[in-house]
Recover the amino acids of this structure.
């Protein structure tokens, strides 16, 4: 599916009704993070989605939580989600074994605005578990590589042990048409890469600020600092996009749990232009 | 440690580039280029901080060592950056180890004549500190943000 074709959000009964997907594979990325590949019910295909959208995943009898879609938009036979075990529901989801079922409803939210990227340089900055929501965007950019200028990716994690998609990282870093920097907060002697914050790697990134689009995902403080650094370098504030995280419940802008200023993060986000939220990021309480 | 004939390239380093040519020429007389292989220790915590080190190529890990835990890299620095300022601040001992992660080329300026040059002309000293303080501030901010677990989510 082309990234610029906006898939329809679920309507009617599909709005709240999860479909039973079966876990096809489970990969342990780190000590607390797994990647699940999910197979749709027999005779069904994965609904089209945009990079940056999320699904509501339901572990029956435990609860439901919003998780970004991390797979390739080109695959309609499986859904991929990377899940960190951080609470009761995510822990139950992360324990789900191949062959077991999960409820899935979605996709929801607006995606990364890749339609803004052709002819421009693309800067992707991910912190921690911010890489999975950016992965479909990277797949899309690489699938149509000739449409874009330089692609710079900076990925930061707490330590080498916290890096996800380790094998894929090696392949991305080996590509000549993509620059992929990895940095960690601290490391032992067996780490030969960079140590420091993602913002410290920005001066090494090669892009033309005025004609760049930046996609950021990670802890809010990381995105805020990175957006400030990119804006200071000359990237227009309406070309810097952040993926926000709030407590999403209904996923369709009805329940109000994820209201953030005038927006519902589930419906109006989770991706917002920096220009629209800069002042909200500076609020001491939100 | 002896220093001689290390003026090659001093003025090209970003840290020194905008400083007065006469000042750079003066301190470069006490500089020498050095290369380190991957794994070589460049600075050792506790040793006398007797030189100002400017990195031209390669990558250097700043490491902290404590008896009860493995050696930990807290930051890496590269071309265009500098190592430490302990040579300027009492007790003039390095506060960390610095180890070459890969083949690294640096310029090392002897500390004593550098400090004399800074003292002799306070305007040069001020200009030099205006270059150094932002580096110190940046590294302090990095340390603060690492405490905030900026990459943790």
């Amino acid at each position: 599916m082309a990234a610029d074709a906006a898939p329809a959000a679920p309507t009617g009964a599909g709005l709240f009704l999860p479909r039973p997907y079966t876990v096809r594979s489970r990969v342990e990325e780190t000590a607390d993070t797994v990647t699940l590949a999910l197979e749709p019910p027999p005779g069904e295909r994965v609904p089209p989605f945009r990079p940056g959208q999320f699904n509501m995943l339901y572990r029956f009898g435990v609860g439901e939580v919003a998780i970004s879609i991390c797979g390739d938009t080109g695959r309609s036979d499986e859904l991929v989600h990377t899940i960190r075990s951080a609470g009761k529901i995510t822990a139950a989801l992360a324990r789900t074994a191949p062959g077991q079922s999960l409820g899935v409803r979605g996709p929801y939210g607006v995606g990364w605005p890749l339609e803004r990227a052709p002819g421009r340089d693309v800067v992707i900055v991910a912190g921690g578990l911010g890489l999975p929501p950016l992965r479909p965007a990277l797949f899309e950019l690489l699938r149509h590589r000739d449409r874009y200028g330089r692609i710079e990716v900076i990925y930061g994690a707490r330590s080498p042990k916290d890096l996800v998609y380790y094998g894929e990282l090696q392949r991305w870093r080996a590509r000549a048409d993509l620059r992929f920097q990895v940095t960690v907060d601290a490391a032992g002697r067996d780490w030969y890469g960079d140590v420091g914050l993602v913002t410290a790697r920005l001066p090494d990134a090669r892009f033309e600020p005025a004609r760049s689009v930046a996609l950021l995902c990670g802890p809010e403080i990381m995105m805020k600092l990175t957006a400030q650094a990119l804006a200071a370098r000359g990237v227009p504030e309406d070309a810097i996009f952040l993926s926000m995280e709030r407590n999403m419940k209904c996923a369709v802008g009805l329940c109000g749990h994820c209201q953030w200023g005038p927006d519902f993060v589930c419906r109006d986000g989770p991706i917002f232009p920096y220009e629209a939220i800069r002042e909200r990021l500076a609020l001491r309480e939100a | 440690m002896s220093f001689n004939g290390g003026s090659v390239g001093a003025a090209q380093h970003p840290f020194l580039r905008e400083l007065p040519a006469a000042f750079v020429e003066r301190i470069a007389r006490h500089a020498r280029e050095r290369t380190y292989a991957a794994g070589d220790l460049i600075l050792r915590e506790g040793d006398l901080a007797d030189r100002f080190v400017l990195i031209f190529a390669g990558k250097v890990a700043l490491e902290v060592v404590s008896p009860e835990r493995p050696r930990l890299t807290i930051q890496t620095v590269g071309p265009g950056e500098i190592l430490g300022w302990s040579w300027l601040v009492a007790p003039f001992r390095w506060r960390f180890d610095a180890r070459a992660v890969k083949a690294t080329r640096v310029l090392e300026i002897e500390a004593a004549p550098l400090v004399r040059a800074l003292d002799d002309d306070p305007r040069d000293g001020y200009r030099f500190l205006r270059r150094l303080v932002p580096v110190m501030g940046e590294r302090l901010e990095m340390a603060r943000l690492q405490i905030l677990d900026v990459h943790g989510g």
